[in-house]
């Protein structure tokens, strides 16, 4: 009897503690739940090897700029919890969101791979943040965490430009004014950016310690007129110094690896003009953006536009990035030609230089030789013809050129044709899912072919022509 009584008391106390904990940490109302997703999956075949090749036809270091139809399998799962305010009259919107991304770092297909296989699947967590918006019914919001903090995209090139402030930090927004701070730190020794770590020997033992880059961003939008929005952007980057008790930075002439370089900084200035074009149909627009980054803040390469991914080499005499810069210009237009045809075109231009006194190869703080100058230009267009409600015909044409250092200009052109089945039956460029049959042909100039300056050429060898045949599905929700 005593044993049963003791067990009853223990169970009562445990249940009481659990219920108390739930009352302490749970909201007063059951939260809502939403689930979004983006993904693409498919197979491909190539004439050169009679099988799958799994590589873009685009030029090297351009990502999907130059056409995205050959992109590999990719999946995002986005669960979000929505909390209700305690006061029923409170209009505050509260959300906690997480984003899981799944992709392969090799040529593996999703169906033939796992996270444990060699070169298999990778699972990343690009988003985990909490946000409160419309606070007390006003146009005011706050957020903290890691998020894909970006707005502008050239969809047919899968290129987020101008304001890609993706990272971990915090931010506030009041009406048309946004301020955020992103914190970047890593012990990655394979990157060419200035190392985010240093040798800490304050205790007599050499250990790696993190040094953090802080990026502060201010965006201000101005509604010039109905349908015309002008946005100005300013960024300040600061790379912290090492600890005061560390030795002087390693001289460049005695050691190829310099970790204890002094503090550095950079600035970014940008302006963007979003224009609606009602005379060209519902949803027609033209977006133009110009951005200039200095010193450490001259990032924007590899198909990305993050300014904190510093481009080029430092000045190893002064141990800083003074004189480094990057200029980016992006323009996109989209409109309906008529009821059966939609037209979309874009231009992406980037010119970047590091701080070393050369356009050729130069050494980084980690002793690697990299290009200190690059210029690229890409033009592309897509026409979507609505043959019927469920059958759409996509046609694309892309031209891309890129120069690195003192190397010759690399050029390529690509034509793609993609008959598309849209099962929902909506005549829209944004409707998904899509089932696409894709055929692409590309041509490379002598320099690109001879230097294998394409993921495709690196596999098939020195050729002037490239081919891609695939069946793909893409969706979002």
TrEMBL record:
Keywords on record: Signal
Example GO biological process: carbohydrate transmembrane transport
Keyword Metal-binding included in the entry's annotation: no
SUPFAM superfamilies: Porins
GO molecular function: porin activity
Matching InterPro entries: Porin_LamB (IPR003192), Porin_LamB_sf (IPR036998)
GO CC terms of this entry: membrane
Database matches in Pfam families: LamB (PF02264)
Protein name as catalogued: Carbohydrate porin
Signal in keyword set: yes
Signal peptide segment: 1-20
């Amino acid at each position: 009897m005593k044993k049963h009584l003791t067990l009853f008391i223990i169970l009562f106390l445990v249940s009481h503690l659990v219920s108390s904990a739930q009352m302490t940490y749970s909201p007063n109302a059951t939260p809502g739940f939403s689930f979004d997703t983006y993904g693409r999956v498919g197979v491909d075949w190539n004439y050169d090897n009679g099988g799958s090749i799994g590589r873009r036809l685009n030029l090297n270091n351009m990502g999907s700029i130059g056409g995205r139809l050959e992109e590999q399998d990719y999946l995002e799962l986005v669960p979000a919890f929505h909390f209700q305010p305690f006061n029923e009259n409170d209009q505050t919107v509260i959300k906690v969101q997480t984003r899981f991304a799944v992709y392969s770092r090799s040529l593996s297909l999703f169906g033939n791979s796992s996270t444990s296989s060699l070169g298999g699947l990778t699972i990343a967590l690009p988003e985990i943040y909490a946000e409160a918006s419309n606070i007390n019914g006003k146009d005011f919001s706050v957020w903290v965490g890691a998020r894909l903090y970006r707005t502008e995209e050239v969809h047919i090139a899968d290129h987020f430009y101008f304001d890609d402030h993706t990272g971990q930090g915090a931010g506030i927004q009041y009406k048309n004014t946004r301020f955020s701070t992103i914190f970047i730190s890593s012990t990655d020794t394979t990157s060419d950016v200035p190392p985010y770590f240093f040798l800490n020997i304050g205790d007599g033992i050499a250990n790696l310690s993190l040094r953090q880059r802080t990026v502060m961003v201010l965006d201000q939008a101005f509604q010039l007129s109905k349908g015309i929005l002008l946005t100005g952007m300013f960024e300040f980057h600061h790379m912290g110094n090492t600890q005061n008790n560390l030795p002087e930075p390693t001289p460049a002439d005695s050691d190829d690896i310099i970790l204890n370089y002094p503090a550095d900084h950079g600035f970014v200035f940008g302006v963007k003009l979003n224009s609606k074009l009602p005379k060209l149909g519902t949803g027609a627009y033209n977006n133009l953006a110009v951005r200039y980054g200095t010193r450490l803040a001259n990032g924007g390469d590899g198909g990305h536009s993050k300014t904190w991914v510093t481009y080029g080499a430092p000045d190893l005499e002064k141990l800083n990035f003074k004189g480094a810069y990057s200029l980016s210009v992006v323009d996109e237009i989209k409109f309906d030609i008529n009821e059966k045809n939609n037209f979309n075109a874009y231009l992406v231009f980037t010119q970047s230089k590091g701080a070393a006194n050369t356009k050729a190869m130069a050494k980084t703080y980690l002793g690697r030789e990299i290009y200190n100058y690059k210029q690229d230009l890409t033009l592309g267009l897509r026409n979507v013809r609505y043959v019927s409600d469920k059958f759409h015909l996509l046609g694309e044409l892309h031209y891309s050129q890129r120069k690195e250092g003192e190397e010759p200009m690399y050029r390529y052109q690509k034509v793609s044709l993609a008959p598309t089945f849209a099962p929902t039956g909506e005549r829209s460029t944004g409707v998904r899912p899509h089932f696409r049959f894709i055929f692409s042909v590309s041509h490379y100039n002598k320099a690109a072919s001879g230097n294998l300056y394409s993921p495709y050429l690196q596999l098939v060898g020195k050729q002037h022509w490239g081919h891609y045949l695939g069946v793909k599905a893409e969706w979002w929700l």
